[in-house]
Amino acid sequence: MISFISIIAILCLIVFNTELFIVLRDGDIEAVRLWSDKNLFFIFVLTFVMMIIQNTFTVIPLILLLTLNITLFGFFYGYMWSWFTSVAAAVIVFLIVRGLFQDVLLQKGYSGMKDKIEQNGFMYVLIGRIFPFVPTSIINIAAGLSTVRFNHFLLATAVGNLIYFFILSLIPLGFLSKKFDQYILVALSTAAILAFVGYKLCSRKKRNKISHSSIHDK
């Protein structure tokens, strides 16, 4: 556990002292573009590392990462790269917690969050992604501690981040203000929840039909 935290701390120090981060902090967008043209591979590695840090401790604002990626790669590719790296980073944290630190973290007071996630599973993770009332890192850790299936965690994270990241990606472009962000999130999340409930109901009906037909056959 201590070694993992040490690695993340070292990564934070490296990221926060890079030339790109300093230029970005100063708000010089043109300098960011010029710098990235000469260091494309390093940009991919650095933004991925930053997303891993964000999914582990949430010390880097997500809107900052999205703005950086959109500035460097354009809206579509910046949005997709942000989404892909966020899902990959969440999976890395989930697997590390489940495989290495489950017993330690349960003793540290994460059991309450674990119980909540186990009761709701997919929906808890999905809503947590769309409505970021709980930090991303806490969702990853709590899901890793729980018995939530990996495929449920992966699907909920992919769908939830796809929706939430799209909304956040509109803010740097000036198409959306933070004031209206929550209203659109409510509409999109409601649609996602209704779609999921409909899918579950259809699946249940299909299973019932199969079970009834098998009983009649006997």
UniProtKB/TrEMBL annotation:
GO terms for cellular component: plasma membrane. Keywords: Cell membrane, Membrane, Transmembrane, Transmembrane helix. Pfam families: VTT_dom. The chain crosses the membrane at residues 41-68, 80-101, 121-141, 153-176, 182-202. The keyword Transmembrane applies. Residues 61-170 form the VTT domain. This is TVP38/TMEM64 family membrane protein. It comes from Bacillus taeanensis.
